[in-house]
Amino acid sequence: MEWHVKRFEELTAKELYRILAARVAVFVVEQNCSYHETDNKDEAAIHIYVKDNEQITAYARILPPGYAYEAPSIGRVLVEKEQRRTGLGAVLMKKALEITVNEWDAEKVMIQAQTQAKSFYEGCGFETVSEMYLEDNIPHEDMVWTRPL
């Protein structure tokens, strides 16, 4: 497995296609959720992913401060179904947090977490900061990670 960290303009057409295909496979098809996957935030994002035999197996999108929240944020976090519960998601989040701290000297990082994944994010150091709300008919909670002193 090889990790990649790229800004939008560094992605090849093939890489972008594979990223979007992976996101649609998880968030639209697997979760049976119809929503606009392309939201005009990808161009500002840092994209982190790992691939195995040219297939994206884990991915996250890191947004700068002011795009989704006042603080930088991590979103579109996914791990391919066959790779879940292997520790790959925790490695992905650790790398995404490191990038966020290095890029913007972030004291805090926000996420919009699906409630069913709350315990996973808590294990990565995030704490809930909102009530549950529906986003595209899926329960979500806002969570924050605070950089240790």
UniProtKB/TrEMBL annotation:
Domain N-acetyltransferase: 6-149
PROSITE patterns noted in UniProt: GNAT
GO MF assignments: glucosamine 6-phosphate N-acetyltransferase activity
One Pfam match: Acetyltransf_10
SUPFAM superfamilies associated with the record: Acyl-CoA N-acyltransferases (Nat)
UniProt xrefs under PANTHER family: GLUCOSAMINE 6-PHOSPHATE N-ACETYLTRANSFERASE (PTHR13355)
Name of protein: ElaA protein
